[in-house]
Design goal:
elongated; 10 strands; alpha/beta; 2 domains; Rossmann fold; single chain
Length: 295
Amino acid sequence: MIVRRAASAAALALAIVTAPSVADTQPSPKIPRIGYLGPASPTEGAFLLQSFRQGLRELGYVEGQNIFIAYRWAEGRPDRMPALAAELVQLRVDVIFTYSNATVGALQKATRTIPIVTANFADPVRNGFVASLARPGGNITGFTGVTEDLTNKWMELLTEAVPKTSRIAVLTVSSANHHRLWLEMQGAAGALKLTLQRQEVAGSEDIEPAFARLVGDRAQGLIVLPSAPINASRTQIVSLAAKHRLPGMYPNSQYVKAGGLMSYAQVRASHQPENREGPRADDPAVRAAAGGSDY
């Protein structure tokens, strides 16, 4: 779950900041400076921010006392992300934390030297974020939810919950990752005897027209793919799904807390709270992101 990964990513970011460089083996006396780029709004991203701060506190770091965090929020607007990423780079922070493909992409264009730690990104090799999972190289590290492996499960669980479902609307954004997910879902839909209807949105203003179209197309269920613009509108999406009596499969539990039917996401043992202490400063992932030897 991304909430647990946020705490682990906080540990990873801190390990990168506090790791001694090759040239200087003495710990730096300066206060670590972390940039935080949220793809949604502070309200929508509050649950992840809380976990991130908790991860820092468990390691003895309290904001305003012995660590500095500069926040930037894209409010679910991808067009704002490049400028916000550039602002964090200009602030000369030691490491930048984020949790979406869109923000990772913006940060990658803004800097090739400041370490970037993400709590969640999909298909990092195909998207050009890392050279490979074994040897990522570059300045990006973090956790991947391997969303592609979940698409079949989303359809299976939705049809199990609502057995007569045969037409499912899929809410997406215009991105290479969502296009790949859409193709994979189409390829698997035949075996499940499903007809998929793609509804693409760019922001909150597109949500209601998308629902009008999918209702007009007689959709019987809804699958929502994860993205910053869509997640920022989750309350609106859940409300419209309830209004039109559409059972929905959502990408994370925050939709369920907002009233959605169900969610299904991959949870790894390493993301459990008892394992939040994260990697050591000599961990290969830390060295890779800090510019040392990759793994």
